[in-house]
Amino acid sequence: MALDARLAADIQQIRARMLAEGALLSEGDLQRAYETFADRFSPSVLRRLDGPELLTLLFDHGNRDSLVYWLEFKDDEEMPARFGSIAGGSALKFGIYRRKETGVWMTGSPQAQTPLTLDAAVAIARRNRDQLITAAERVERFRARGERDYGALENELAHLAPDVADTAWGHKYLSLLFPDVLDDYHVATYQRFHLIKLLITPPEGDGRYAAAGAFVAVARELGLHINHLTAILNERHGRPYRYYRIATGTERSPRGRWDAMRDGGHVTVGWAQLGDLSDIAPTQEGKEQLRGRMARHFPEATPQRIRRDTVQLFRFVCGIEEGDLVLATDGARVLGVGRVLGPYAHTKGAELPHRRPVEWLSLREWPLHVLHVHEDLRLTPCELEKEVKNLIETERVLLMPREEEQAPPSNRPLPPVPSIPPPPERLDGIPARIYAILERKGQVILHGPPGTGKTYHAERTARELAARSWFGKTRDALSEGERARSDRAVVLCSFHAAFGYEDFLEGFRPTERGGFERRDGVFKALCDEAGKNPGRGHYLIIDEINRGDIPRIFGELLTVLEKSRRGQAVTLALSGSPFRVPENVYLLGTMNTADRSIALLDAALRRRFGFIELMPDAAPLGNAAPNGIPLGPWLNALNARILENVRRDARSLQIGHTYLLHEGRPIADFHRFAEVVRDEIVPLVEEYCYEDPEALERILGSGLVLKHQRRIDEGLFKPSREAELVQALLQPCPEIATTAQAMASDAERPAEEDDAADEDPGESGP
Q1: Residue 586: CB partners within 8 Å, gap ≥ 6?
Q2: At residue 671, what are phi and psi to the nearest 5 degrees?
Q3: What is the C-alpha separation between 656 and 632, in angstroms, rounded?
Q4: Alpha carbon distance 391, 193 (integer Å)
């Protein structure tokens, strides 16, 4: 199975980030968890039990050592909750449970529960035990023989273990015993969704085992543990969503609604006569209420038409959920794909008032595959679930770079030139998060390991926000004079052990003529300036905010720093004058978590700040590989070893990516890279491993560390020993050495001419 190269690269990038964040279990932790589970609940263990002891071990939720507790709730060092969730619903999903209040065993459905005698409950436990054992033995043979027909495995398990195989808990039990054979998505709809996102056609049917082969193949292709793969896919794809087709016109006016939908950021449907439908509840009663309203407004329509239209409109108002995708279509041709941003809204006075807000993700046109029922083209909205090719094609289109806006057709007049400049483009990424917190709380702290770009993002974002606040433009669009003016609204200071209240708010300072005078501190001066320019943002960046004595520096300022108390006066202790923090003042702090944990910050200060964690990110390093060392993978591997070998606060002691950047670009020159390793990275790691040469060797490698001499082999950094240095840097990560060698081989291989003829695929009709 060859996964799309863009998907493969994205998955590996997310893997690196999640490893750096500690969001993935190590291979060792995974193995220990699987072994612990097998020691407690393997078929050989279950085979030895019977009677009430078996019943309690299998199905007693009140027993923390029971199988059902481990499958549904277990989350500790023995068994972290990272093996696919089966939480939700009632305990009857296991077919049997013991009522806590009475101790009576129950079976049945949530609507009709039946009490069981002890003998009857034990009989159910025996039957389920025998089926679990039989199913496990079949999967074991499947693995031992190297079988690949997962569809046949599914059919056999359904026959051998009809009560447990096709349940979420039965699937999780088997996946924990055989993680190399089965994935840990325990619900078929989740399997189907993630395969479609991977552009893989899921198997037919609703079984839980046929899809495993695809996930196992992808994990093998990417060199990932299946548990890591599914965790990464959850991170990348989010919750499962549905796909809907919504028509953009009628037979009389094809695409008649499309321009308004595209430009207005929404999708819409007809039936304007019905008025505001916000009162329709997502229940059967709400659906009947809508049907009655439809019948009153369209008395000439047949009962069948009323029923069909009610289903469509109810789906639009109550069925489509935030996050679902909508395909705006003209017949069988897709005009755009968007993500639903919010609930139904009624726009009074509009020709098409029933709307759902949408973010358009693609405006590329492409044909739908033939639908199973031709009438589907007249239904809107229609859920696209019958033809999986359309769903995969939707995801494929969303992977493509967004096309440039095309010029309007010649039969459509050009839009008028606006008389005022458009608003600046929206922020995204870290600046957008900083802006959101500043608007909500007024102050933010960026924290993380060294070299993760905290000060860079704080300064860049503050200057960008100042430009927009002062001149309504992006900073790049400002003139030289405008840029200088807006930059003056950004002030930078650094906290340190000697920085105090008098530096921040006000205090007495010596004069050149002798004596002392009262002077305003950096924050008070900024607030005074902001008071003269209401409505325009002023920004104070406090670098290394955790290095100062926070309560002493801020003093009574903490009372009025909260956004809700901006403008309220507090009396300054020194001058006795009233002081206010204007609403247009914003604070951005940075702190290096390698120096001090965020948990040690003053509690009062923490309540008043929002926090953004910045972790090492290999993405800015791109494909840079000085002398064959790929910087991104090398940094990820180094941080993975730090996480594994530095026991205390290892997550905060990783190495940031900015060490490997020069003027914002990845280091391309090997000599500069070697200097950074020798003068910046190695000293940091030595500090982390103080008095622990074994850990230092495990992190940096035996080629770089002279363990018995308890020092770094400085001679490796001589220009004449460059080849040895490359080997030493790659020695602790052989998987990267292989990559580097492959890159070197590719560089030596002569380029081949591409003699493939360009093909015109044409355009298929509906």
Answers
A1: 438, 442, 443, 462, 465, 537, 538, 539, 540
A2: -65, -40
A3: 11
A4: 10
Q: Which two tokens stand for residue 363?
A: 């405006």
Q: What stretch of H or E contains 506?
A: strand 506-510
- Pairing type for strands 570-571 and 578-579 reads antiparallel
C-alpha closest to that of 684 among 621, 595, 612: 595
For residue 724, what is the enclosing H or E element? helix 722-730
CA distance 394 to 199: 9
CA torsion sign, 711 to 713 to 718 to 722?
A: negative
Measured in whole angstroms, how far is the alpha carbon of residue 235 from the centre of its chain?
4
State the amino acid at position 586 in one-letter form: Y
pTM of the model: 0.55
pLDDT tens by residue, 53-103: 999 999 998 888 999 989 988 877 788 878 887 765 666 788 888 887 788
Distances in whole angstroms, Cα of residue 130 to Cα of each of 36, 56, 135, 165, 557: 21, 16, 9, 12, 69
Cα(528)–Cα(530) distance, rounded to whole angstroms?
5
pLDDT for the residue numbered 434 = 94
Q: How far apart (Å, rounded) are the C-alpha atoms in residues 240 and 635?
A: 33
Distance between CA atoms of residues 657 and 680, nearest Å:
12
What string of H, E and C letters represents the secondary structure of 433-497?
HHHHHHHHHCEEEEEECCCCCHHHHHHHHHHHHHHHHHHCCCHHHCCHHHHHHHHCCEEEEECCC
pLDDT in tens, 431-482: 999 998 998 889 999 999 999 999 999 999 999 999 999 988 899 999 988 9
Alpha carbons 676 and 624: distance in angstroms, whole number: 15
Continuous segment of H or E residues that includes residue 393: helix 388-399
Helix (H, G, I), strand (E, B) or coil at 663: coil
Please check whether residue 666 is in contact with residue 625, taking contact to mean a CB–CB distance below 8 angstroms: no
CB 575 within 8 A of CB 506: yes
E strand spans, 593-704? 610-613, 661-662, 665-666
